Amino acid sequence: MCSGNFAKCLGITLLPLAIICVICNIMLFFPGGKVADESSDITDEVFYLGGILGSGVLMIFPALVFLGLKNNDCCGCCGNESCGKRFAMFSSILFAAAGAVGAGYSVIVSCVAINHGPKCFTHYLNGTVQQTNSTYPFVDGNYLSNRTLWELCDGPGDIVTWHLTLFSILLVTGLVQIGLCAFQVINGLIGTICGDCCGCCGSS
């Protein structure tokens, strides 16, 4: 497969992944699927916008660049029919690196959020209400291996499942995005050194 075609396939894959991350991050602003009474009721890591900025906006730019590589004018660089394509492939490496950094940011935020657990309304073990303000009832991911601790959260909604599911999606999607950007770095290096194997200016 030509380096330009391969980059286009990566771009087509990255776009829906970026949209998924943006949607997940937006959904996290509604803890348990409900509108929060106050912003302080929302888990802090949601405001870091890992899915919107990291795996979302910063990933859309590389995806669009990858999509356009196949149609890039490879004949437009000093009359050299391969110079333009090589430069385009080199620039794609830089965009791929930027995308990987954004996805990495999203992965880190997701890991921290999963470890901290959600902010929720809690109660004492005897069932009496502790506070009207939401707090973090879990410590160092202890709820991940002990599901009975989930009962400490009184809401909103099924907040633990909501939190864990959406941040897990962001985590997995971010890792996939990093892998795809790494593939494009390799593909871009090959395209920079060898040019597009299909040729685009008529071929010899």
TrEMBL record:
<keyword id="KW-0472">Membrane</keyword>
<feature type="transmembrane region" description="Helical">
    <location>
        <begin position="12"/>
        <end position="30"/>
    </location>
</feature>
<dbReference type="InterPro" id="IPR008661">
    <property type="entry name" value="L6_membrane"/>
</dbReference>
<protein>
    <recommendedName>
        <fullName>Transmembrane 4 L6 family member 4</fullName>
    </recommendedName>
</protein>
<feature type="transmembrane region" description="Helical">
    <location>
        <begin position="46"/>
        <end position="67"/>
    </location>
</feature>
<keyword id="KW-0812">Transmembrane</keyword>
<dbReference type="Pfam" id="PF05805">
    <property type="entry name" value="L6_membrane"/>
</dbReference>
<feature type="transmembrane region" description="Helical">
    <location>
        <begin position="87"/>
        <end position="108"/>
    </location>
</feature>
<keyword id="KW-1133">Transmembrane helix</keyword>
<feature type="transmembrane region" description="Helical">
    <location>
        <begin position="159"/>
        <end position="183"/>
    </location>
</feature>
<comment type="similarity">
    <text>Belongs to the L6 tetraspanin family.</text>
</comment>
<dbReference type="GO" id="GO:0016020">
    <property type="term" value="C:membrane"/>
</dbReference>
